Amino acid sequence: MTGRRRGPALPDFPWDSLADHAAKARTHPGGVVDLSIGTPVDPVSSLIQTALTSVADQPGYPTTHGTPELREAAVASMARRYGIDGLDPTAVLPTMGSKELVGWLPTLLGLGAGDVVAIPALSYPTYEVGALLAGATVVRLRDDEPPPPGTALVWLNSPSNPTGRVLSAAAMAAAVGAARDVGAVVASDECYLALSWDAAPVSVLDPAVHGGSLDGLLAVHSLSKSSSLAGYRAGFVAGDPGLVSGLLELRKHAGMIVPRPVQAAMTAALSDDAHVTAQRHRYATRRALLLPALLAAGFTVDHSEAGLYLWATRGEDAWETVGRLAERGILAAPGTFYGPGGDRHVRIALTASDERIAAAVERLG
Ligand SMILES: Cc1ncc(COP(=O)(O)O)c(C=O)c1O
């Protein structure tokens, strides 16, 4: 093998470019405080671990659609946690975390050259990657900007990664209406929906958003953040029954199946809200320490009303801020990872242990 790869040109993997700053931060005598990635650090609830191992001795293939119990648990959780009633369990499909779905959705929807995928101006890098993998064209939309004609897929993400911005139900409804005007599917990435602080995010499956019809709508959910299950790879997509059944058909053919133990773990996680509340509380506590420390250190924190990040700026180039923080042993992600408009912000994650957050607060002081 020569290592040459056919296919679309993809951007460099953003985090690779942080290596020098990471090396610098690691030289701090108190060790690095890595706030550059949103990876959970807290224990997996024992009820989820028990469910995982309870089906460890099942040698047969799992179903791509997931067990009926899993899909019922997803429907019930959407009703309990977000007030979404009447979701059809057949229109729920488990995924191996949500990143693979984000990366492959344009391809699974049959998009290709000539199709436009609209993404938020500042957004999770995989929306762009997914469009490029399909050979589609990416358009970054400013806040409230409608998608152009020819758009086949619109990504929404409230609460947003990286900004923590929350769209009101009216703003979500307007975005859905604008997408429908050009005949685009709307995929709403809702992986931070359970983690809100100063605003109340809504699902695209809320009637106040969709106006009574799920046509063309997909809600993309992840258990990585709300249940600290990033290591399990656990997510699901739900919404328009026709779209979900199309995804199911393709995923059956392609072997995109959530392992049976993870299906059992997801069923337990979606049936219990206490561990989600406890996790939310941990992040709220860390945010209550880190946010004032950043403000006192001269940062301005924009949006950040929900989700796992503080979108902070010192009014200087993002890389300069990353460098300053690295000197104090703190690693943050430059806003440029999320789009050109992020060049004066850094994204600071709340996903570190209490001890590491306390270290960051002390170093900022
Ligand atoms: C906006 C957004 N979507 C999707 C994901 C993917 O999460 P996972 O694949 O763990 O479900 C992330 C992870 O950070 C994210 O920030």
Task: Describe the 3D structure.
It is an enzyme of class 2 (transferase). InterPro entries: Aminotransferase_I/II_large, LL-DAP_aminotransferase, NHTrfase_class1_PyrdxlP-BS, OxyQ, PyrdxlP-dep_Trfase, PyrdxlP-dep_Trfase_major, PyrdxlP-dep_Trfase_small. It holds the Pfam family Aminotran_1_2. This is Aminotransferase. Its EC number is 2.6.1.-. This protein has 365 residues and is α/β, with parallel strands linked by helices. The chain folds into 2 domains: 14-43 and 275-364, Aspartate Aminotransferase, domain 1; 46-271, Aspartate Aminotransferase, domain 2. The mean pLDDT is 96. It has 12 helices and 13 strands. The termini are far apart. The chain has helices spanning 19-26, 46-54, 68-82, 99-108, 125-134, 169-181, 207-210, 241-254, 260-270, 274-296, 318-327, 354-364; strands at residues 33-34, 92-95, 116-120, 137-141, 151-156, 185-189, 217-222, 235-239, 300-302, 309-313, 330-331, 333-334, 346-349. The strands form 3 sheets. Strands 2-8-7-6-5-3-4 form a 7-stranded mixed beta sheet, sandwiched between helices. The chain has a 4-stranded antiparallel beta sheet with strand order 9-10-13-12, with helices on one face.
